[in-house]
Amino acid sequence: MHTLSPPYSNALSYLHRGSEPTFRVVPTRITVKCGYGFEPASFSQGVGSTRTDWQSACAILSSKVDSQNEDSNPTAAGENIAAVNGHKSAGTDLNLVHVSGEKTLPPKPLTISDLSPAPMHGSQLRVAYQGVPGAYSEAAAGKAYPNGEAIPCYQFEVAFQAVELWIADRAVLPVENSLGGSIHRNYDLLLRHRLHIVGEVQLPVHHCLLALPGVRSEYLTRVISHPQALAQCEHTLTKLGLNVAREAVDDTAGAAEFVATNNLRDTAAIASARAAELYGLQILADGIQDDPNNVTRFVMLAREPIIPRTDRPFKTSIVFAHDKGTSVLFKVLSAFAFRNISLTKIESRPHRNRPIRIVDDDKNEGTAKHFEYMFYVDFEASMAEVRAQNALAEVQEFTSFLRVLGSYPMDMTPWSPSASPSSRESRI
């Protein structure tokens, strides 16, 4: 696979030390590069202490403002005392005790819902994704957080680090495709990093064949794109009569940018229609994927989990390991089946730290070697439900390791497949 080195314009390297921004006439964006020579910030220390300091500072500032306003305007003291972290609300709403001759009820004790931040979906967030502008991951980030600021990252791990180091607020990363299967790299990174899944989004994939303006199909000698995109369009390219070399690169939008930046008139790229618009390419053929039912599932990651609810469909993702063979796996799955909890996915990955399990046989003729696996499971239930809590309590009895990756709302938005092969608009 070739690695493209696109000339990013006005790119701010957040993590790569010693790099200098370059300026070229291409779309302006902020790019996060991979960092080396340091350890990622600890989740348990960085987030907790920073949030506590922030809340303490807000409380101190609020108290100072209240005292100043009370001294300057005594008549508004009752209103100002109800300001919490800069937000005003009526004193009766907070059941505050007013200084008067009448006896009033004491204030209500705070509950966990009072301290929990409201969901930030749709607010102005910095959302990290892997790739360059025009990538399908950028479209998924825009669907998940329509008003967010998308931050492109060179690698998947950089997106994880960007959230951990507070450079980004969220990360939107692919975990599986309906044709290509699971993105194993991101499953491994979910276990390595301490981020939490807070949502999911499903995005139909619509491939286009892109080339420089004025280029005709007979001029083409090669087509470049991500390996999965090339595989998903293989039969269509043959039907279009393109007997050209096919080369794999890092991502689809990067392929489009590479063609535009290097003025390659003999090369086409498979990417999205937005990539054609961004990099000034023409669409030779639209909707060239072999299967119109092509969809990629993305997960949204954050530093802190969201509070599970029961008022809408929720999904929970876990990962576990065991060391007693397939019989234990059957018991684990039975814990969900007994409580009528549907599993939507089960994925096994070799245990990185302990890949081989050695078992002595009864006849002392040698040892049997088996692969050790980590199992990733998604099931349709919220951690706020008692049945889910009881299921995990039972699973924990049979496993040597168990971790909840997140309990989050399911993507319930309507989905329609891409254009069918018969309805493609071809300009070749």
Structure report:
The chain has 428 residues and is an alpha+beta fold. It is 29% helix and 24% strand. Strands 1, 2, 3, 4, 5 and 11 form a 6-stranded mixed beta sheet that branches. A 5-stranded mixed beta sheet has the order 8-7-9-6-10. Helix 12 (326-337) runs antiparallel to helix 13 (386-398). The protein is elongated, with a radius of gyration of 27 Å.
Key terms:
428 residues, alpha+beta, five-stranded mixed sheet, 13 helices, 17 strands, elongated
What is the compact description of this entry?
With 428 residues, the protein is α+β, with helices and mostly antiparallel strands.
What's the helix and strand layout?
Layout (H helix, E strand, L loop, with lengths): L42 H30 L4 H4 L10 H4 L17 H4 L10 E5 L5 H9 L4 E5 L2 H9 L5 E8 L3 E2 L1 H9 L3 E9 L3 E4 L10 E4 L1 H6 L1 H6 L5 E4 L3 H10 L5 E5 L1 H7 L2 E5 L8 E8 L11 E8 L4 H12 L5 E8 L5 E5 L6 E5 L1 E7 L6 H13 L2 E9 L19
Parallel strand pairs: 1-2, 1-3, 7-8, 7-9
Antiparallel strand pairs: 3-4, 3-11, 5-11, 6-9, 6-10, 12-16, 12-17, 13-16, 14-15
Helix pairs in contact: 12-13
